[in-house]
Design brief:
By secondary structure, the protein is mainly beta. The protein is built from three helices and 14 strands. It has one domain. It has a seven-stranded antiparallel β-sheet with strand order 5-4-6-7-8-3-9.
Amino acid sequence: MSKTASPACDAQSGEVVSSASVTRAVLEQLVKPFPSGAFFLGEHLPSRVVDDNRQMRRLLVRFARLSEVQQMAQDPLPWTAYSWGRVFCEEGELRWDGSEGELRVVYLGQAHLLAEHLRASSRPVEGLKRRSTQYYLFGERPRRVKPQEVGVAPEEEPRLFLTTRIPRPLFYPVELLSTTKRVTLKIYCYCDPADGATVYFRFAGLELEAEPVPTKTRGGRS
């Protein structure tokens, strides 16, 4: 996918990095400092075949607001059970990997979002340049496609994106404008000023790209 980048700047004061091994029961405490509007992205490696269960298949990769996944207590796949996951916003990101049994978590961002469980292992991010990069996510807003034609409930339509590269509907947790065409993922890269190598990176949010508004030319045509 294509990307756009902005000039580098010094890493923001107050940013820290921390990592630790924890139990899944601790995950809820680790995300408590994050705002409810933060994003959740999870991927799950099932222990059995689920090709006969459409709902479960769609849950294997999930992109939603943190508040949404926290409210679904009876979800067949709770957000804390995902093999890989991350919660992120402009100020910071918490990500975890439990694919090997042990749950390893990493936090990177502003210190005020750092949970108490991770403070002992934290250290300040110093001497690095932070660069903002945006990646286009797969899919575009569909035209002339009715939700039921792709197996999507009407209430899901505002978040629906489609692409021929992926044989399933994509849902992005964004508040769409009527002219929204694509969504980009904002990433912060922390680079060594000596050689430009990326030392750390984190997701920071989603941004919308709108379709250009046709401009009128002489004769009333665009």
